[in-house]
Amino acid sequence: MRRAGLVACCFALHAAAAQDSLRFSGPDAETSRQVSQIIESAVAAGLPASQIVAKANLAVLVRAPGPRIVETARAVAGRLEVARRSIMPHELPNDIVNAEEALSYNVPTDILRQISKASPKAPIAVPLSVLTQLVVTRVPVDRAGQIVLAMLHRGATPAQLQALGNGVDADVRLLGAAALDAANLRYKNLNPFLAPMPASAANADNLGLSSSPTGPKKP
Amino acid sequence: MRRARLFSYFICQLGSLASSGFLGAQVESSLEIGASRLRQANVPSGNSFSGGATIDWLGERGQLRATALASRQTESRWTGQAALFGSLIGNSPSPWWQLDVAASNYAQTSALPTTSAEGAARARLGSGLRGAALGLGGGASVTGGHTGGVQRALGDGWWMLGPERFVASFGWTHTSPPKAFAPSAVSYADAAGGWRHEAGALSLGISGGFRFQSSGGPDVDSWQLVDGTAWFAPHAALVLTAGRTLADYVRGTPRTTWAGVSLRLSPSAHFSLAHRTPDRSLPRLAVTRINAERVEIEITAPNAATVELMADFTEWQPIKLERAGGVWRVAGGGGRPITSGLHRVSIRVDGGPWTVPSNLPRADASPDASFGLVTVP
Questions:
Q1: What is the CATH number of the domain that holds B356?
Q2: Could you tell me the pTM of the whole model?
Q3: In terms of Cα–Cα distance, which of B299, B304, B303, B305 is closest to B328?
Q4: Structural domain of B220
Q5: For the segment B14-37, what is each residue's pLDDT rounded down to a tens digit?
Q6: What is the CATH number of the domain that holds B140?
Q7: Considering the domain boundaries, does residue B223 fall inside one?
Q8: Which residues of chain B does A209 touch, with a Cβ-Cβ cutoff of 8 Å?
């Protein structure tokens, strides 16, 4: 009985915390009212409304005017709906949120669908995030999608994806490389660590057969 | 019926390869010219000059390598070899099968050329990072109208640890080489291991193995290879190799000991030693996942007296970081609960303006406000 009470209490606290995280306080009463309505509609539609709050808060932080904040919230809600449809059957709120981020930088829904299909059982927040980073870095969106998809197909780990997403921009800004060249180079540099992994890599020439002899050429 | 189903399965696999793999394929080519000190069976030691070319095609599920090498050993002795290697694997991230093919031709002055073709099928376990494969293969080689067969059993294991790659393999081979190479059928077992370090502009590899032969040669023999490649410019690398290889009865190549140096030229750019290094005094942010819920945030700002961070996961409240050795970490350590994926961050050094960490993409939220976009794994 006592345990059930404790569980109920924890549940109530959790629900209250969730409610708190969805509370929005705008620069004026009318903006707050309109954004709150959008948030409530998103919650009713089963969308991860915390993303609307986050982006509306960001708009407040940069001192956007009220109508702009409402417009931002409405656009995010619309993109969340498109994002959810695009990455089905992925249903994790975090996946939907990251798909919305990609859409906000004009990534076509077709690429989101392909990423969802390429990783049907695992979360796709990291590949979507890296895709967004590449596009923000000005890698052409088609090539960015191709690289992320190829990395997923070749079994890249989240850490490898993260290194590419964070690294390409550093090459562009700190070393002066062109975005497309930097992305291609970073991707190419991962080749030794991604499938297809050659069997017999060490002694290909001596066993006589290998999928990819990586050793030195013999005279 | 079962054979028809298997056939249609592989046709579907090839179809999916054509529709996806080819689109994202990478093509690499290189030319190599070099010199080496060489000792080969039945030939006096001497200097050798060589020139070669390699083309690599790498797709998501297949790769192809074509390579050719010509070598001038004395005024009257030339050797030439060409080889084609191909590989196709099942669906990633954990493909369970791999098909390999290899074809080669080796020729030398005043001797008959040897042409060989082989194929193998492997069952794989694991991923590109670590795994193992077991397989069977077979083929034939032809020298001057004499045909010999070869059957192989192969096993491999591979393990990646950051930029280090370790491989181990074993194999059993039974071959009936042309009479020029061995008087009768030869059987031998190979056991080998290797390590390769790949990091940016540098690649270093060491491998070696033992051969246990039942007939046609010494009972136990060994081979060793060492190679190092340094890309000193985006399109040029210096390659050093040394080694001792055993006679290859199938491809017709003789036992060789050599040490050589060569220049590799590639039309596509590589990370190189001439690559400018980023300005280390600029603040950089790194995020590492500790466990399913928590991540560790580190900011490198060596000359800073104070560092602050604000981000969507701090609900845009500035938090002060603590110095921990050469980096700055969120106070208390132990990481923070942050979801995977994209996050916006901004940092402030020594009470100055809020800025974007130098190693992150910059997203503009307004004409006078930018944030760094970081991927949390």
A1: 2.60.40.10
A2: 0.75
A3: B299
A4: 2-265
A5: 444 444 444 457 788 999 999 999
A6: 2.40.160.40
A7: yes
A8: 100, 102, 118, 120, 137, 139, 152, 154
